[in-house]
């Protein structure tokens, strides 16, 4: 079955999309299907319900996901307030001490949330910090799959997420059921799952990867063994090009935020800011399209740097450039500005804002600490299999995109 590559598929990649399709593969989600994160059903504490299955091998677009979540956000009493109560940050710190809680904030969280957290970083770095910490409670200010990853690596800890509806369009691009069907169509293939996946999907994978180590992970798989790479089509395309392997099948997932950092936009902004360096952050799926583009010679090589979070912060302190364009979700700018206030930091696309990430408000964080919600639970058997995939990654490649 031939499936048209969605808009934004890197040129020349169309033939890579050799996804084996079942008979129902042509059944795209019905119009209006959010394709995004489905909140836990009422009465199901902390449980994660992935996007509806039933579209084996098919791409599940998620254009309506963010909008839907924003609508939900407006209705939710715990998070609808945009005015934090006075002294909220002090109260968060007091409650954290009282509950022996460690607050972890992803780089893309709002500045106020980053500032009140114990640690700020990428999802895997934070999950590993959770596992290494002795805190009884982990509050993960991020999106759901990240909190799940923390739970996978720290199963004996109580893991809370301030708003359990904070999903991820990339993680929701594939379900565990879809992975099983894909595997059945490619017996013996190795499954490589980007960390932006649910616990159920990780449990179906042989090994996880980050954007920084994806090439190493794939290169470590013996030639001749087919590879199923999921869910990010841009990272998959990049890995395929760098490794030169033609036995990699790539799932057609994408992050709706990185779609806002288009190749045209990147090229236009780089030309507009002739003196600026260009920092491209490959983590979180937000700029994997840019990562792919950087390797094509389409951007000024002498000014373009693909950097992890740690690498970006180190480069921020050292750069002599008057301005730096940053291709990632805009949350990262907060840390960069703090690292080097003398530089003009400019987002490639100021609208590259992940609404899921911004669902963690001061009110939601306070509620999380006060009420001990929302608890993230992962079935122990699923967690054990998912942990194996993460640990295999750590044993093979560099552990994370971040310079932890
Ligand atoms: S910005 Fe990150 S968390 Fe948000 S949808 Fe994209 S990949 Fe998911």
Elements, N to C (H/E):
HHEHEHEHEHEHEHEHEHEHEHEHEHH
- CATH topology of the domain at 66-168 and 356-379, by name, is Rossmann fold
Q: Write down the overall geometry.
A: globular
Distance between the termini: 43 Å
List each distinct ligand once. Answer: iron/sulfur cluster
Written overview of the protein:
With 404 residues, this protein is of the alpha/beta class. Among the domains are: 66-168 and 356-379, NadA-like (Rossmann fold, 3-Layer(aba) Sandwich), CATH 3.40.50.10800; 260-347, 3-Layer(aba) Sandwich (Rossmann fold), CATH 3.40.50.10800. Helix content is 36%, strand content 12%. It has 15 helices and 12 strands. It has helices spanning 65-75, 88-99, 111-116, 123-132, 144-153, 176-185, 199-204, 214-219, 233-243, 263-272, 288-294, 309-318, 332-339, 362-371, 380-396; strands spanning 101-106, 119-121, 137-141, 158-160, 190-194, 207-209, 227-230, 248-250, 277-280, 304-306, 323-327, 344-347. Helix 11 (288-294) links the parallel strand 9 (277-280) and strand 10. Helix 12 runs parallel beside helix 13 (332-339). It is globular. Residues 143, 168-170, 196, 255-257, 284-286, 329, 354, 356-357 line the site of iron/sulfur cluster (SF4).
Keywords:
404 residues, Rossmann fold, four-stranded parallel sheet, binds iron/sulfur cluster
Question: Strands, helices and their partners?
Answer:
Layout: H1 65-75, H2 88-99, E1 101-106, H3 111-116, E2 119-121, H4 123-132, E3 137-141, H5 144-153, E4 158-160, H6 176-185, E5 190-194, H7 199-204, E6 207-209, H8 214-219, E7 227-230, H9 233-243, E8 248-250, H10 263-272, E9 277-280, H11 288-294, E10 304-306, H12 309-318, E11 323-327, H13 332-339, E12 344-347, H14 362-371, H15 380-396
Parallel strand pairs: 1-2, 1-3, 3-4, 5-6, 5-7, 7-8, 9-10, 9-11, 11-12
Helix pairs in contact: 2-14, 4-5, 5-15, 9-11, 12-13
Iron/sulfur cluster (SF4) is lined by residues 143, 168-170, 196, 255-257, 284-286, 329, 354, 356-357.
């Amino acid at each position: 079955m031939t499936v048209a590559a969605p808009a934004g598929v890197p040129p020349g990649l169309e033939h890579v999309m050799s996804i084996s399709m079942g008979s129902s593969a042509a059944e795209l989600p019905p119009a209006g299907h959010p394709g995004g994160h489905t909140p836990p059903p009422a009465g199901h504490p902390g449980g994660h319900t992935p996007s509806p299955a039933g579209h084996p091998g098919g791409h599940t677009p998620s254009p309506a996901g963010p909008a839907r979540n924003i609508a939900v956000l407006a209705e939710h009493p715990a998070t609808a307030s945009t005015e934090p109560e006075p002294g909220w940050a002090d109260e968060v710190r007091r409650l954290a001490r009282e509950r022996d809680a460690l607050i972890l904030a992803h780089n893309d969280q709002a500045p106020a949330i980053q500032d009140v957290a114990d640690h700020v970083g990428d999802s895997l770095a934070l999950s590993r910090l959770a596992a290494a910490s002795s805190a009884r409670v982990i509050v993960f200010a991020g999106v759901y799959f990240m909190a799940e990853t923390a739970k996978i690596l720290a199963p004996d800890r109580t893991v809370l997420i301030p708003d359990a509806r904070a999903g991820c369009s990339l993680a929701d691009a594939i379900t565990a059921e879809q992975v099983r069907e894909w595997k059945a169509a490619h017996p013996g293939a190795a499954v490589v799952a980007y960390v932006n996946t649910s616990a159920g999907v990780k449990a179906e994978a042989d090994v996880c990867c980050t954007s920084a180590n994806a090439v190493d992970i794939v290169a470590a798989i013996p030639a001749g063994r087919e590879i199923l790479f999921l869910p990010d089509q841009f990272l998959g395309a990049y890995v395929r090009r760098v490794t030169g392997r033609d036995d990699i099948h790539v799932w057609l997932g994408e992050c709706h935020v990185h779609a806002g950092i288009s190749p045209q936009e990147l090229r236009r902004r780089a030309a507009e800011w002739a003196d600026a360096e260009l920092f491209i952050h490959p983590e979180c799926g937000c700029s994997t399209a840019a990562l792919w583009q950087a390797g094509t010679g389409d951007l000024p090589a002498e000014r373009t740097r693909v950097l992890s979070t740690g690498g970006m912060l180190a480069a921020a302190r050292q750069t002599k450039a008057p301005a730096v364009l940053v291709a990632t979700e805009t949350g990262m700018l907060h840390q960069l500005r703090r690292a080097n206030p003398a530089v003009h930091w400019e987002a490639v696309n100021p609208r590259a804002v992940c609404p899921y990430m911004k669902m963690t408000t001061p009110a939601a964080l306070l509620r999380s600490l006060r009420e001990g919600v929302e608890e993230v639970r992962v079935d122990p058997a699923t967690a054990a299999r998912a942990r194996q995939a993460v640990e295999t990654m750590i044993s093979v490649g560099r552990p994370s995109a971040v310079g932890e």
